[in-house]
Amino acid sequence: MFKILDKKELCPKIFQFRISAPKLVSKALPGQFVILRHNEHGERVPMSIGGLDKENGILTIVIQEVGKTSAAMNRMKAGDYFQDVVGPLGLATHLENFGRCIVIGGGVGIPPILPIAQGLKSAGNRVEAIIGARSEDLLIFRDELTSACDKLHIATDDGSCGTHGFVTTVLDKLMQDGTPINFIISIGPVPMMKAVANATREQELNVWCSLNPIMVDGPGMCGACRVTVGGKTKFACVDGPDFKAHEVDFDEMTSRLKMYNADEKIAYDKFLHDAEGCAFQKSASETTSKSDA
Ligand SMILES: Cc1cc2nc3c(=O)[nH]c(=O)nc-3n(C[C@H](O)[C@H](O)[C@H](O)COP(=O)(O)OP(=O)(O)OC[C@H]3O[C@@H](n4cnc5c(N)ncnc54)[C@H](O)[C@@H]3O)c2cc1C
Ligand code: FES
Question: Ligand 2 center to residue 233 CA distance, Å?
Fold first, then answer.
């Protein structure tokens, strides 16, 4: 059992949890993930590591409510216990002294770029972060990334903060400022990671992305997280989650992510109905899509 030390609402439907997990935290590295169950009957869900307090054994994760299990988790409180937190899973992000590095995050892909930025900084790099959201109120981890990076760039779809546009609008400008970029990693919604790959393809930059396909077991046995990278089948839970972005088949991944949409929507509606017995909650699930993540 893993105790929730504190919980904070970062923006609507997105909560940060700090969980006591000393053994896991002592071994975990930037870029890895964990699989949690909120109770003994709960579904196993993967979540990225958004912070590692090695001194106090505290794991930070950030959960966006998109369906039944993330909704149940986001209703847990400080003092409650997760049934299991398994990890660290996956391969850590390869960190070395590259030179100039750009870490790019969108939605709940923003928290996991923080430990990566900190690791790149410790390795002696110049680290710039680009974070993007629909509007200013949905930007998360701004203070943390300002402290960890040499520069934080912000892009919002509606222009309410930073550059009016997408993370690739900022990236395009950085690619033209005359200083070579030696390493890029993007974490977030699949369309964002695909756009970053496309924007950097011609320049043949060293670009990575962290993939979030549907996962079931985590140690590579069920095949649920199959992705195609460089024409070969890979399992994101053991071969990734980081892959060379220019080699990923993002279209296949997008269609595999939608495989269970109808069943997932039924389960989410039933959860909201049972938990809150409130008719208007049904429409909440209709407006919540993973494209926000
Ligand atoms: C390595 C990895 C790291 C992740 N890190 C985070 C994180 O830090 N924070 C966070 O909030 N979520 C993260 N996710 C996604 C998270 O695991 C799913 O959102 C969660 O499992 C959904 O469970 P659910 O029962 O609430 O929703 P479901 O009912 O399973 O799904 C609801 C909706 O979300 C979509 N969806 C389901 N799973 C995924 C997925 N893996 N990726 C994209 N869309 C999905 C479905 O297509 C559906 O539209 C990560 C996934 C992976 C594989
Ligand atoms: S989650 Fe089962 S093989 Fe990766």
Answer: 12
Residues 110 and 226 in one domain: yes
pLDDT at 259 (0 to 100): 77
Count structural domains, the chain.
Answer: 3
The ligand with the least distance to the CA atom of 263 is: 1
Report the pLDDT value the prediction gives residue 262, as an integer from 0 to 100.
72
Residue 222 beta carbon below 6 angstroms from any ligand 2 atom: yes
CATH of the domain at 176: 3.40.50.80
- When pLDDT is cut at 50, 70 and 90, the band that residue 277 belongs to is low
The answer to whether the Cα torsion of 25, 28, 33, 35 is positive or negative is negative
Q: From the CA of 216, how far away is ligand 2's center (Å)?
A: 6
Task: Pick the residue whose CA is nearest to atom 2 on ligand 2.
Answer: 222
**Each residue's pLDDT tens digit, 60-101:** 999 999 999 999 999 999 999 999 999 999 999 999 999 999
Could you tell me which of 207, 103, 208 has the C-alpha nearest to residue 152?
A: 103
Q: Domain ends where: 64, 89, 114?
A: 89
Tell whether 65 and 105 lie within a shared domain.
no
* Rg of the chain in Å (alpha carbons): 18
Atom of ligand 2 nearest to the CA of 218: 1
Any atom of ligand 1 within 6 Å of the Cβ of 97: no
Pocket residue to mutate for ligand 2, from 221, 253, 256, most atoms within 8 A of Cβ:
221
What are 105-155's pLDDT values in tens digits? 999 999 999 999 999 999 999 999 999 999 999 999 999 999 999 999 999
List C-alpha distances in Å: 33 to 84, 158, 215, 225, 238.
13, 31, 12, 14, 11
* C-alpha of residue 112 to centroid of ligand 2, in Å: 20
* Per-residue tokens: 96: 């070395």
